[in-house]
Amino acid sequence: MIALLPGESRALFPRLMDEMYDLRLGAVRAHAGRPSAAVHRLAVVDYFDSLDPLYVLALDEMACVAGALRLLPTTGVTMLNDASAGAPRDGLRVESPLIWEASRLTLRRAGDSRATDGAMNRTIGQLGVALNAVAEAAALTYLIGVFDGAMHRLLSHRGCAGETLAPPMRIDGADIFAVLYEVGATMDAPFRSLAGDASAPPINLADLERLRQTDCRS
Amino acid sequence: MYCEDVFDLIDRLTRADRIPIPNGFLSELLRATGLANVAYLAFNIPTGLADQPLLSAVHAASWRKSYAQVRRVDLEPVVRVGFGGIMPLDWRLLDRDDPMVCKLLGEALELDLRANGVSIPLRGRRGEYALFSVCCPEDASSLLSPRHALIRQLMAMSAIFHSSVRDAFTGESHVDMRMSDPELACLRLKAQGTGDHEIGVALGAGPTAVRFWLETARARLHAASVDDAIEEACRIGLIRVGVERRRSATGSTPAELIDRRER
Fold it and tell me: ∠ CA A78-A82-A85 to the nearest 5 degrees?
């Protein structure tokens, strides 16, 4: 299942936001090579989350967040243009109303019993298909994925890495890759083959939470 | 402060000095598309006057009073959804069973506005937020069915308009005269009539990257189309192309652009 959560509505869905931040925290802990306690949860909420992005959430059959990313228009403040002192590299911003940035892609990690290869493929596929659908609805031409090295490798292995725009940037000690997706069938196809029959239109979040509460009570 | 005081203040401010905003292109776009009404609302526009917030409003007096009485700014669904999100909002997707939506759309029809339209949320690099809305004619099926093309056109045009507004207040120009090497090369080769694939081969990139560089060049030059971007790049001397080899990019008005696209 896919859910679209506009940033300004985050307060209405604290469970989903918490689960998304937990995924981010797990990813930071897994790759930072530091003891778990060294990474505080606040460290995974960044300035760009305060800009009311559009979150795309992949939910499992229990309606728990299995993967997530966020979208921001490049006409505003973005990771690609504003995240590090040196960015953008040549002093030229990537800025167009028809190009949005997808960043902070996070997935359930190995170690979580629910994160099987099949489940991870499905999640990546669902997120990619949803991303393309959102971009088509917004009449965009391109999406730029701003992903860390681990996520970039993961997508590369599955044939969904997009076209690399430039050598990786260094942000907060991590290599960050900027990759290009042309919105449309070319972008949709590799993700759809990963998603299998699991790709579906986004669900209504309010209905989802209402249903969950009903289930919990019963 | 009471609502009435706020609107008195707005009245006084609207009588203050005006800063002209170049919007000729916008008027042409509206004429060409048949879109009749435009509303533009922005917050956090940088004024260059650090301690003097700017408030400018154009609104019928009767509307202001009525809006103040019913706290309409809190309720207006397009404003609420549009400012909060980043997705273009097709008014057809508003919940028409919502009494507030019904009332607003009814009022719009009474005032000879249309109940169908699109709102484009805008985000700026200086932290500004804006919302650009247009009304579409109810019976213009030719406009409504290719809504995707209309939204793309409005996304590009509203961003150019917003930049013009911001520039008018800051006294700066954000038309970027600097281009990356691939952008310049793509514009130059495109102007010579070279195809995307061939440009990619020449630059050691794929056609996707070529189209991407053309799009970023278009946006940088605040042009409505790639053809217009090539014209502009030639005009300001960013690229030089032999006249005999230059692909015809005549017709830079929105009407002509639309005609060309339809062909």
Answer: 160
